[in-house]
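note to self — DONT lose this again. spent like an hour looking for the file last time. sequence + predicted structure for the chain T wanted, 146 res
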Amino acid sequence: MQVEIKIDPSMTEPKIIVQTASMTDELNDLLRRLSEPEPRFIAGFREGDARLLDRSGILRIYASGGKVLAQTEEGEFSLRQRLYELEPRLRGESFVRISNSEIINLKKVRRFDLSIAGTICVSLSDGSTSYVSRRYIPKIKSVLGL
């Protein structure tokens, strides 16, 4: 499927046009997702290009150097929203905040290491690791049922 985004300052609201030879399962799935209250996509930017990132493909979203970045299996993308703006959009899905500067996708967690006293080490599916800050440990334990 080809995706094209055109920025037009004169537009008052987003407009989506689908051109196709026939309806497919992929298009039906896309229509269903677009009909949801919040689209499942987040706009990510890299090297001057905008990409629609499917939430299910995001490993983690974190703040670093004054920027908010989304780490996916395809690499890192800059986001224009702040973590506090993204957190409500991701609520009700598999995302959970683990520190003031990071939100992780629980579906992309390989394991939680509880052996370090007082902290929790999170290993993600791409091999990267993150740590749950002490302030968020009770919340994570509640989510995990510990």
